[in-house]
Amino acid sequence: MNGPQLLLRQLRREAEGIVSFEFVSADGAPLPLFTAGAHIDLQLPEGLLRSYSLVNDPGEHHRYVVTVDRAANSRGGSAWMHSTPRPGDRLASSLPVNNFPLYEEAPLSIFIAGGIGITPFMSMAARLNTLRRAWRVHYAVRSRQRAAYVQELASLDRTGDAVNMHCTGEDMERPDIAAIVREAPAGSHLYCCGPNGMLDAFAGACSGLPPQRIHLERFSASQEAATAGGYEVQLARTGQTLSVEPGRTLLDALLDAGIPVQYSCSQGICGTCCTPVLEGTPDHRDDYLTHEEKAANRAMMVCCSGSLTQRLVLDI
């Protein structure tokens, strides 16, 4: 990987089923800088690569803090993170990447978070405090026991009314996303990170607003991976041709053939597996590329997307 070797300094339980991991540089050098909303990829055993938002203040150069929810349907990443790492262990990391950047000039930033979706907003709130810019967060969780970073949010809240909690399993109402968007002051920027139902409601509520004011980040796919198969993929660099059988994904075919493909989320949301397309029309199933990028058909996420044509040629 192209980033630093990280040394795990501390694990901390942040809420029920949620643990934070504090990493420092393994060689003692300052860590590469990051911006609010950024994430890093961690190299886990057995070739697993997982993306985690950086939670700490971007002004800190000595540590990276990530937070991991123990997912009930874990594909290996969160289960391993919750069971295996101990202080003193080393992990390889990517350089910080930001696909969910903060617009720092907004007079007000409004964050809508569901569950573990609070993580990117922690660094954003810290950065906005440094800039002395206003922010507001609406944080929905099933219960108070599942609410991470409540005390930290309270300490960041310099006005005393910036944090709005919604514990949906305790007879509290869910955030009224349509009302939040409707009542947002002119010029404010709105952000959402959480489960797909929340994100879909947010996107619908924001449909009439200028797109540059709307920001969302998914941590699960909005649609199923393409598994229809029945097409061939040619690898331009080697000339090798692979058949993608029905019931299999393109990524399955590449991995079965021993092709060293970098991938992380397997759901088309992180961008790790973005691959140039030289010929053919992909069946785009990702939430990473823009509508314009999908229409151009010059790249695809091989972890979840397939082909609408009988043949794809990829720059691999």
Automatic annotation (TrEMBL):
UniProt cross-references to Pfam families, sorted A to Z: Fer2, NAD_binding_1
Enzyme Commission numbers on file: 1.14.13.82
Keywords for this protein: 2Fe-2S, Flavoprotein, Iron, Iron-sulfur, Metal-binding, Oxidoreductase
One GO molecular-function entry: vanillate monooxygenase activity
Entry protein name: Vanillate O-demethylase ferredoxin subunit
Taxonomic source organism: Variovorax soli
UniProt xrefs under CDD domains: fer2, PDR_like
Enzyme kind, highest EC tier: oxidoreductase
Parts forming coiled coils: none
Domain FAD-binding FR-type: 1-103
Position of the signal peptide: none
Domain (2Fe-2S ferredoxin-type) ranges: 231-316
Taxonomic superkingdom: Bacteria
Record flagged with keyword Transmembrane helix: no
